[in-house]
Amino acid sequence: MKFLHTADWHLGVKTNGRDRLAEQKKVLDEILSIVNYENVDCVIIAGDIFNSANPSADAEELFFDTIQKLSANGDRFVFVLAGNHDDPTRLTAGLPLASKHNIALVSNIDRLQENSFNKNGLVKVVETGRGHIKIQKNEEIVTIAYLPYPTEIRMTEKLDSDMSYSEKVETWAKISASAFTENTFNIFVSHLFVVGSKSASGVIKAGDFFAVEKNKLPKADYTALGHMHSPQCLGGKVYYSGAITQLSINQKDLGVNVFETEHGKMINFNEIKLQNVSVYQKVRATSMLDAEEKLAGFDDADIIELEIEQSAPLSASDVKSLKKNFACISNIALIRPESEGTINEKKTRKGLNDSELFKQFYLSMRGFEPSDELVKMFLECKGEENETN
Q1: CA 272: distance to chain centroid?
Q2: Residue 218: is its pLDDT beyond 80?
Q3: Which pLDDT score, from 0 to 100, does residue 348 have?
């Protein structure tokens, strides 16, 4: 049986105000192509389907349209786990309909109704229980034990207050993993921070908020995790597949994991990089001309935070021209040369009037000076419209 592991779709996310849904649709279409090309039997989505608990109608439509296509009319099994960004109730509201397409939407470890799944597909649900589900294709049986983003509220279970978070996760995971047997391939799916995993801001350490020690996870033939946006293996077949779009400047190497089982053993594993991903990075220039030269190589769909390092402020017309000619720009910031410093600027503020202070503040935030109309509006709001510049 062949599996594809993905996670952290974050549908509906915006970067510097820019909607990423069109890009996400391209990436999901690419994942669908990979699934079809690789003849995948089961797709595992390990949490954070949406970027917020209250996703837009467009984001939800994209999600349901995608998982329906992934299911291939019920021939393929699709397993969807709730992450910390997902509203558990909202995500699983469509389960009665989804299960008819062999799609499991899971937000807690309560037992799913086995007879609600499609029995005519190539992959069949043959058993469900608390925190686990078993699927079968021909003679191959795979047990999927799962733990949605674990909190006492989500698990509806209050544990000993003296237990650490790792110990609580271990307790819940044991319930799910109790279904593991020696004669099946065993997969554990969850959405959490594991100590030793790497984020854009560094390595997750013991003692970090909601961090789980790796030895608290159940022993599985493959552990499919979500939550960390960079793909990585923690050893012992514990994997983060990573996000499907670049959600921070430091994030690299986006992809999905594809692996195959035979007679209860993994026989193939492959990390497949995604191609339809927009570039998200910071570009620093020393002038307008330098900025134009450096931006020429980017596509309109890319996301560029432009920094221009120069003494003179940017004019509104400069900013307008850059944004008009380079749709990839999501933000423009003026960086003053280090030699100028900021200490002397702060010392001179004492003698500035409100108009000059506002101009200085606006320049520091936007990288260019405000228009006369904007200054006038500010002074009117302050009740000082008669103040001269």
Answers
A1: 17
A2: yes
A3: 58
How sure is the predictor about 346, in pLDDT bands with cuts at 50, 70 and 90?
Answer: very low
CA dist 218 → 1, 144, 221 (Å): 22, 12, 10
Nearby residues of 382 by Cβ (< 8 Å), 6 or more positions away = 354
388: confidence class by pLDDT, cuts 50, 70, 90:
very low
Helix (H) or strand (E) holding 141: strand 140-147
Residues 6+ apart with CB under 8 A from 171: 159, 163
CA dist list (Å): 292 to 84, 157, 328, 369: 40, 57, 12, 21
DSSP H helices, 211-334, are 288-295, 316-325
Which pLDDT does position 209 carry in this prediction? Answer: 64
Q: What is the DSSP letter of 341?
A: -
Contacts of 45 (CB under 8 A, 6+ apart): 6, 7, 9, 67, 78, 79, 80, 81, 226
**pLDDT on residue 338:** 65
Average pLDDT over residues 75-104: 94
Q: Which amino acid is at 91?
A: L
The two tokens of residue 26 are 């391209």
Q: Give the whole-angstrom CA distance, residue 55 versus residue 49.
A: 10
pLDDT average, residue stretch 255-272: 94
Which tens digits make up the pLDDT trace of 271-312? 999 998 899 999 999 888 899 999 998 999 999 999 988 887
- Collect all residues with Cβ–Cβ distance below 8 Å to 3 and sequence separation of at least 6: 40, 41, 42, 43, 44, 187, 222, 258, 259, 260, 261
Contacts of 363 (CB under 8 A, 6+ apart): 313, 334, 369, 370
Structure-derived torsion over alpha carbons of residues 188, 191, 197, 201, reported in degrees to the nearest 10: 170
- Asked if residues 269 and 259 have their Cβ atoms less than 8 Å apart, the reply is yes
Instruction: Find, among 136, 69, 67, 138, the residue nearest to 104 by Cα.
Output: 67
Q: Is 66 helix (H, G, I), strand (E, B) or coil?
A: helix
Residue type, 17: G
Question: What are the pLDDT digits (tens) for 41-52?
Answer: 999 999 999 999
